[in-house]
Amino acid sequence: MSKVKQLEGKGRLAGKVAVITGGAGGCGAAASRLFAAEGARVVIIDLNGDAAVKLATQIIADGGQALGVGADVSQAVQVREAVARGLAEFGPADVLFNHAGTLIVKPFLDVQEHEWDWLLAVNVKSMYLVTQAVLPQMLAKGSGSIVCTSSISAQYATPGEVVYNASKGACQMFARAIAVEFRDRGIRCNAVAPGFIRTPHGEREMRDLQAMGVDASEEAISQQQGRLCEPEEVARAALFLASDEASFVSGAQLFVDNCFSAV
């Protein structure tokens, strides 16, 4: 695990406040570390509050600035409280990374209504709640960058992932629509769309798909995208979209899939 003080940060987020949901594990944790290394004051919001606090403590020990907050981002009251804590600690947000998400791998006809509701709440409703809570801070400043974690699943369907595929399609269009509505008020919004990733989330997806008879072995995935994506690679893509280096990029979906979507 790279430490903030060991990373060769270029200050691409210097002086900025970044809110990251799902920021304590996998790609979210990689983004929390990287954004801090690039100079951001990072508000790490995660369902696992202990993990969020622990990661924030590590970032601070390594010379960065971070705050860990536990919250269920599918619940409006908890979202408002978490965002308010970030505002009180660091001031208004410049960057929002809507990364929190989960998945269900299950034959469509076996999916229960409560499972559909749960996954859409975590993957889609959370973007609405968090963005609605953070966006006014950006509008007051006249600028801001929002990044949402979509997936290759937004465009490439997989057996057993109807609910997940639908949620990521919604994520892609959410990012586009926010970009269009708020372009003339200084707000950019983009989606990052990873392929299969070497994280607990990604590895569980691979196991569950194989249990359904879908060939999602690492060997099979390597034939589609060369190898598994590393969480730091997703974080770097999100950093680009969040930073001023992407000042004329908005409404885009950036695939991080090593040609999966190109062939």
Automatic annotation (TrEMBL):
Entry-linked Gene3D superfamilies: NAD(P)-binding Rossmann-like Domain (3.40.50.720)
GO molecular function, one term: oxidoreductase activity
Keywords of the record: Oxidoreductase
Pfam families from the UniProt entry: adh_short_C2
InterPro entries (UniProt xref): NAD(P)-bd_dom_sf (IPR036291), SDR_fam (IPR002347)
Family as reported in the entry's similarity comment: Belongs to the short-chain dehydrogenases/reductases (SDR) family.
UniProt xrefs under NCBIfam families: PRK07231.1
Name by which UniProt lists this protein: SDR family NAD(P)-dependent oxidoreductase
Organism: Pseudomonas putida
Lineage: Bacteria, Pseudomonadati, Pseudomonadota, Gammaproteobacteria, Pseudomonadales
